[in-house]
Write a structure and sequence with these properties.
The protein contains 7 helices and 5 strands; from the N terminus they run βββααααββααα. The protein has about 150 residues and is α+β, with helices and mostly antiparallel strands. The protein has 2 domains: about 35 residues, no CATH class; about 100 residues, Arc Repressor Mutant, subunit A (Orthogonal Bundle). It has a 3-stranded antiparallel beta sheet with strand order 1-2-3, covered by helices on one side. A two-stranded antiparallel ribbon has the order 4-5. β1 and β2 form a beta hairpin. The longest helix is centred in the C-terminal third of the chain and has 14 residues.
Length: about 150
């Protein structure tokens, strides 16, 4: 990461992502990439629900507007958190998957789930052992879709 005049340039392979840095605080820098209403929900669906295509991601319960979903996918790809590859030529359509950098967000999402389950009673709780079993699996493998249960 190269810093100059309050801006950070992260090297992402042969591309770079320029972000406006509020500080050198790691939380502030992570929020520059992940800190909006939709981004981590897209990561959640890729990580836990095995959603790969635009239409699958759009059909999440939160119903992200299509223009915002397209923007978040582009930003996540530029940040090196997801990779896309075409699965259809006409019209061109893509599948998305988390990179190693994206899969490294698992502990962040796990702790957000635990915090939310502890402090927000109406939150959906994962099935018993789900997070632990998920953590034990090979993080590079594709996962089967899992449904979360509503518990009271």
């Amino acid at each position: 990461m190269v810093r100059s005049r309050g801006r950070a340039k992260a090297q992402l392979g042969n591309r770079s992502l320029e972000t406006c840095s509020r500080s050198e605080c790691p939380i502030a820098n992570a929020l520059d990439i992940l800190g909006d209403r939709w981004t981590l929900l897209v990561v959640r669906d890729l990580l836990f629900l095995n959603k790969r295509r635009f239409a699958e991601l759009w059909k999440s319960p939160e119903r992200i507007p299509t223009n915002l979903l397209a923007d978040r996918l582009k930003r996540l790809e530029e940040a090196g958190i997801i990779a896309r590859r075409p699965y259809q030529r006409r019209p061109v359509r893509h599948e998305y998957e988390l990179t190693r950098k994206g899969r490294d967000l698992f502990p962040v999402l796990r702790e957000m789930i635990r915090w939310s389950n502890k402090h927000i009673p109406e939150t959906t709780k994962p099935p018993p052992g789900f997070l632990e079993a998920f953590e034990r699996k090979d993080r590079g493998r594709k996962r089967n879709p899992r449904q979360m249960e509503k518990t009271k």
